## 1
Amino acid sequence: MVLRFIALSLAFAFAATAQAADKPTSTAAPKWDTVKGQQIAAQVCAACHNPDGNSAVATNPKLAGQHADYLYKQLKNFKADGGKPAERNSPVMGGMVAALSDQDMRNVAAWYAAQTQKNGQAQAKAIEATQKLYRAGDAARGLPACAACHGPAGAGIPVQYPRIGGQFSEYTDAQLKAFRSGERANDPNRMMRAIAAKMSDAEIKAVSDYVAGLR
Ligand code: HEC
Ligand code: HEC
């Protein structure tokens, strides 16, 4: 993270030096601008994700407290670029990102990442088998532990592994089924598709309820 930031700052510094002649006021800009991000959130996204990313409706995922890099990647994935279809197909989100620039996407990602997730759902009573699946996986079936990548409390591990704790159960259920069917195929190295392929409907439902109660 820090290294990447330094690398980016350096790249920017070089670019700024190169352009110094026609852009004398150019200084190193931060990678994200949460103030601009907040404006986009309020104007474009709030209707479905709320101004602070704590969506009210289960089909619209909570964005508050999600890692900025993950949010940014999803926004890019929703965008059909250069004549190619979007890596993550969503008619709704495809329309939302169409008019956003790369910097807009970084800014709004940073805004939502800086908000605090509110957990509306009651902690579901975890069935022991579900908790075991989440924490330890099932070696017999070659199913890795969710916790290995998403953390024991579902907080995720930046930059690649998203927060899943506290998310709406319905949304998580839908994403796992989308990975299983291949309808969602934007996971690096097929990580999630390979896992979801081994899960039954009942397991997906149980683990989604479990994850919704994590905090
Ligand atoms: C009309 C409602 C609507 C609006 C407005 C909207 N979204 Fe969404 N958003 C959705 C839905 C529905 C999904 C779930 C898509 C899916 O099922 O894959 C979603 C998914 C997302 C995701 C993926 C989250 C995850 O956990 O993977 C991100 C990021 C996101 N939206 C950001 C935004 C941003 C930023 C804006 C404003 C520029 C915005 N959305 C505007 C409905 C909306
Ligand atoms: C080997 C690492 C790994 C393991 C193990 C893993 N995941 Fe994931 N998961 C990922 C990655 C990487 C992504 C992000 C894909 C992307 O970039 O869109 C992801 C995304 C997800 C998402 C989508 C989140 C969103 O906001 O849309 C859900 C839900 C999810 N994982 C649930 C699970 C569950 C439940 C388990 C255990 C059964 C699990 N994962 C195990 C790596 C993993």
## 2
Amino acid sequence: MEVVLQEWASLFVRWAHIISAIGWIGSSFYFMWLDSSLKKRKGLPEGAKGDSWSVHGGGFYHVVKYQVAPDEMPEALKWFKWESYSTWLTGFTMMFVTYYWSASGLLIDREVLDLTAGMAITLSILSLVASWYLYDWLCKSPLRTKPVLVFAVLFVAIVAASWGFQQVFSSRAAWLHTGAIIATMMTGNVFFVIIPNTKIVVDDLKAGRTPDGKYGEIAKLRSTHNNYLTLPVILMMISNHYPITYSHPYAWVMVAMVLVIGATVRIFYNRHEAGMHGFAVQWQWPLVVAMSVGLIAFSTWRPDQNEVAFYPTEAMEIVMTHCASCHSSTPTHEWFEEPPLGVTFDSLDQIRAHSSTIVAQAVLSTTMPMGNETGMTQDERDILGSWLRAGAPAE
Ligand code: HEC
């Protein structure tokens, strides 16, 4: 029963999380575009920076942007904030449902560090809180007047955190946590900085005071970070489906590459939407392609993989010992009444049919067996890998 509940909880929360994230990222991309599409014309109201026309769903929209604020505050003002908050809240709930509920299966890898579920969950939550405080402190430090330097420090800190997570959690959870601390910084920016600062400006205007320009500047620095971090964070969030990403012994190097690739794509769109031409918008894509090829090449370099001699019977025995309790048409493991995801290894044909995913889950990564309950050793993984790569011969 608990498994059924967990499955449904996971599906519903994931559904909500993806919908919120689409709302958040969609609205933020829309406003980025809107900002760069504004044109200054004659006849605009006093204080207007520009206007923009667009067509959607059979109607025409005419949007005017006021640089600081209109003379009079409108009665109804839509704040775009719940898109961000709900993304974080559903994301954290998903972390709970997937990684905390079955911490011994997905969060902890005993070969990495033998943590109890309580310790692992505490570390996970602490890392989210601490990363926000450190990031916030960085943005308020004397470095803040040099945005490029702030960004460089942030980049190194994220890569270092990713390395740190690799020393503590399972490889899959390590990548996800890197994404989670970035996402926490991004929502923290909206919740603790951008919205409160905008409120101060609105209150000043309502009271007839001239708002201090510093609030806008602070919000700008934070929203620039959010802009460049959006694309990498999405990849980190979906990486859990791809052991090729997180299972690498130097997965933190790949995190660094993904950060640079994602940010470079954003640079292109920012410039393109701002109407730039020529070399200013020509260098990004070739660089992105080159770096992506580099990333793929790096992922295939696996100093931890050993080709070894094997006996087919020995390899099949390994599958029986470490996988069959769950992956059988009649699982004997107490958690499962049916084989997880319908994946069964009852016959040699079934094993061959799943050959590449088995390599991904149990050879390239230590994702399976779940939480390494059965204590599968590296030697056994090497034998299994060599056997599968040789086409899983029967003898
Ligand atoms: C304790 C139970 C358990 C054991 C033991 C176990 N698995 Fe799994 N396996 C699961 C669960 C649960 C899932 C579904 C995970 C998910 O939903 O992400 C899974 C999924 C898989 C998948 C499919 C992954 C995908 O996304 O398509 C493969 C392949 C797999 N396991 C291989 C193995 C191999 C190989 C072994 C033995 C070395 C093994 N498993 C041992 C529970 C187990």
